[in-house]
Amino acid sequence: MFALVFVQCVVNCLFAKVLLMTVMKQGEDTTKNLYYSVCALTYLLAMVCSNMALQFVNYPTQVIGKAGKPIPVMILGVLLAGKSYPLKKYFFVTLVVAGVVLFMYKDKVSIKKIEGESFGQALLLLSLTMDGLTSAVQDRMRTEYKSKSGHMMFNMNVWSAVISGAVIILTGEFVSFLKFLQRHPAALQHISTLSICGALGQYFIFLTVSEFGPLACSIATTTRKCFTVLASVMFFGNTLLPRQWLATGIVFLGLFLDAFYGKTQAVKKTLAK
């Protein structure tokens, strides 16, 4: 898993560097490396835990679990950044929590399967916690240094590549990774496609935010999760129970309501000025 994330971070880093030198020129970056290194560590752990969880839960479960990202972001924002949120925000997040709990609810299955899924869900919970810490550090970076998106993308991936590179060398995973590619050369194509799509995805997220605003980006990324679940069911043989379809609807309803509420508040602030 660390080797896979290492490759993704290297590709993201190179892609961000090219963007900063061409279409995304953002001037000098004054953000301290300490912030970038801490942010990169939590970002890296979130990716690793999320990928590892797929060994124990199916892909729709991972997507729905990761859709609960606003939960740790809000909690850690209150605890670490001293933020406060309106009551409506808590209601929307409660919808997301209820949907995730309903989706993860265990039906009558074997003890062995329950134990495996529980470990996968624990990894998703840890991944979400790391996502929350990443967001908290990024808030500090934006507040104190006005850090730009391109610089964040580049530096976070540089530090993540350094950390994950050290891990795979010290643990011997790099050698195992090379042997794995020798046994399964077709995997190289899948890894390359995943890394390139991930880098392009990050670029379009930043581009959407700068050109069309956060609402369009939130709707696009949330809609993408909906289609990810559908594609996983239709093309990759994963199945969902009626209860899980209902839970999926509740999760995305909460996310959409939160996005529209955020846009309404932004419009009110603009009109007030």
Topology of this structure?
Blueprint: H1 2-21, H2 33-53, H3 59-66, H4 70-81, H5 87-104, H6 111-145, H7 149-170, H8 173-183, H9 186-212, H10 214-236, H11 242-272
Helix pairs in contact: 1-7, 1-9, 2-6, 2-7, 3-10, 4-6, 5-11, 9-10, 10-11
Quick synopsis:
Helices cover 84% and strands 0% of the residues. With 273 residues, the protein is mainly alpha-helical.
Structural write-up:
- By secondary structure, this protein is mainly α.
- It contains eleven helices and no strands.
- The longest helix has 35 residues.
- The model has no long low-confidence stretch (mean pLDDT 82).
The H-and-E topology, N to C, reads as HHHHHHHHHHH
Beta-strand content estimate: under 5%
Largest β sheet strand count, sense and barrel closure: none
The average pLDDT score comes to 82
Taking pLDDT < 50 over at least 5 consecutive residues as the criterion, the unreliable ranges are: none
Tell me the radius of gyration.
Answer: 19 Å
- Number of extended strands: 0
Helix content: over 70%
| Shape, per Cα inertia axes | globular
Structural class: mainly alpha
The first-to-last residue Cα distance is 48 Å
Specify the number of helices: 11
Keywords for this entry:
273 residues, mainly alpha, globular
